[in-house]
Amino acid sequence: MNNTLIYANGVAKFFGSIPALKSLSLEVPEGISGFIGANGAGKTTTINILLGLLKPDAGQAQVFGMDCWHDSYKIRRRLGILHEKPAYPGNFTGQRYLEHVARLYSVNQPNQRVQELLKEVDMTKAKDRPIKTYSAGMTQRLGLAQALIGDPELAILDEPTANLDPMGRIEFLEKIKTLHEEKGVSFFISTHILPELEKICEYVSIVDEGRTVDQGTVKFLSEKYSATIYKIETPNPQLLASHIKKLESVDDAWVQNNMVLCKVSNTKKFSSQLPKLASDLNVGIDSFQPLHSTLEEIFKVVSGREKG
Amino acid sequence: MKLGSRMCRLILIEFEQYWNFPAFELVLFAALFSVLNRYPSSPGNYFMSVGPMVQILVISVLIPRSFAGSFSRREMNVLLSYPVKRWEILASKTVTAFLVFFGALVFAFLLYVPLSAISLFSDEIYTVLGVVALHTAFLVSTAIFISLAIKNEAMSAFFLVLTLLGLEFTLTTSQEPYRYFALTKGGDVLWAWTWKSLHPSFPREVAFGQFSIALAYPLVTSILLIVASFIYFKWIMQLD
To answer: Which residues contact A8 (CB under 8 A, 6 or more apart)?
Structure first.
């Protein structure tokens, strides 16, 4: 991929004897990309490695083709970052803080740029208030402004919607989409809140327990998992699931929300085996269809959380 | 040009942090108290007063806020995500800390000058300020090193207050030449020796060996600790 912005191969990171990342591999292209995983999956550790705050114990991590630990300064010149739970100096006003950041990025006409950004993130009214008086949503919008102040090629956002109410989330993600469409900024968004992300993401990397479990375009993953995961509505899901598991054409089967979900290796064979099995067990089948793969469903399947 | 401009900006950010928090007022009041409490005796008597103790106390409490505190508040993560080099952040924080603590003492001594009817051009005041600058550098570098090592604001402050004050009390009452490691005794020897070399009629006798110990201890320690802090901060430190 010649437009790869983030590349990682076999990255591992341990805190003492506790593995935060076991074997992380990423290949993130330009555009809006999602980095999804449960809490504790290793998302923030990965981002800290990409920023050069942490040194990987093994493997290779690159942004813009440069090594994240040794070329961290060069990378950060082309990067914007919104940290999870960011801490900005509470006594500074939003405008004053952004002016400082603009000068650190050596922005031409910093004051003008700050005014533009404050307008863009709807913070003009609150610009003269100390940051410590901001709500979570306002702090997040200030965070987005400081991430974009240096006109970055790539903005990394760590759990950007975690502290926002539903309306705030929608507005925030729409703002990101607009920025990408109008200014061409690429975004790498780490989150565990998937439904909103699905609306704006083109590419997704899924991480679980410190490993990359799958990655690709949303369309590709959706097709991949729709083709293999089926849901069956039946009055006796436990019985059916226990027998479906034993079929040659099925890799795994489990019950969720009173439905049988099964991972099928040979769809054609399974389609012929299922009616016979149901008839043998004397169990009715109300419906049988491929799983419509939302990001959330894909994530559950890929990370094996369906069975929990 | 860009480097200078970035450093100035980082120093300004750090200075505004001191300015906004009531730290600056605390530093200033402490400096005024420690200098003016000996008025109207000689400025050199600062070293035999509570001055160095107050300096130890204030620096031990406030430096961890700027260094260890910025780790726990995660401000350091944010700062290190901007296009600034690691050494620039440490250098700007160190320079600002030195300027704030030393600047407050300079201000206090400048107030002392008219009150005690000493001429502003008297080299006595500058001799004392030179020694105060050395001691400030020593305390700031020690506090920075400990803050970086412990990375916890309260624990760093606690450790620094106990260690530095404990050392000061122990060294002050110890035998020669160890007593000149203490800031009070060492400072007194440093300014007296310098003053004597400028004004041979000054009645006190100070041996060169005593002067050397009083000078070498804070100077060498400051250099070693600052170098160690820079090596750690630039090449080793990781932030999760």
So the answer is: A24, A25, A26, A27, A46, A49, A50, A59, A60, A61, A62
Amino acid at B157: A
B-chain CB neighbours of A57 within 8 Å are none
* A139 at interface of B, judged by CB pairs closer than 8 A: no
At A39-67, the pLDDT tens digits run 889 999 999 999 999 999 999 999 999 99
Distance from CA of A102 to the nearest CA of B (A): 10
Contact call for residues B172 and B186 (beta carbons, < 8 A): no
Contact B10 A104 (CB under 8 A): yes
ipTM over 0.90: no
List, in sequence order, every beta strand (DSSP E) within A44-106.
58-63, 66-67, 79-82
Which candidate in A48, A93, A157 is best for mutational testing of the B interface (most B CBs within 10 A)?
A48
Interface contact flag, B81 A45, Cβ < 8 Å = no
CA distance A72 to A264: 45
B109 phi, psi to nearest 5 deg: -70, -35
Question: Angle, nearest 10°, between helix axes B123-150 and B86-115?
Answer: 150
Helical packing angle, B23-36 and B51-66, nearest 10°? 170
Give chain B positions within 8 Å (CB) of A54. Answer: 238-240
Higher pLDDT, B99 or B203: B99
Write out chain B residues lying below 8 Å of A51, CB-based: 80-81
Q: What is the pLDDT of residues B22-66, one digit of tens each?
A: 788 889 889 988 888 866 678 888 888 888 999 999 999 999 999
Count of residues for chain B? 240
Q: Give the pairing of strands A203-208 and A32-36.
A: parallel
Question: Do the Cβ atoms of A77 and B83 come within 8 Å?
Answer: yes
Domains and CATH numbers, chain A: 4-216 (3.40.50.300), 227-307 (3.30.70.1510)
CA distance A87 to A80: 15
Using a 10 angstrom Cβ sphere, with 0-12 exposed, 13-18 middle and 19 or more buried, the burial of residue A242 is: middle
Taking alpha carbons only, the member of A155, A156, A161, A116 closest to residue A141 is A161
Could you count the other beta carbons within 10 Å of the beta carbon of residue A55? Answer: 17
Task: Identify the bridge partners of residue A66 per DSSP, sorted by sequence position.
Answer: A63
Give the amino acid at A112: Q
Whether residue A103 and residue B238 make contact (CB cut-off 8 A), yes or no, is no
- Using a CB–CB cutoff of 8 Å, tell me whether B236 touches chain A: no
CB pairs under 8 A between A and B: 74
Match 């493997």 to its residue by tokens: A59
Residues 66-95 of A with CB under 8 A from B: 73, 76-77, 79, 81, 83, 85-89, 91-92
- DSSP letter for A93, please: B
Residues of B in contact with A157 (CB under 8 A): none
d(CA B60, CA B56): 6
Residues of B in contact with A18 (CB under 8 A): none
Q: Which amino acid is at A161?
A: T
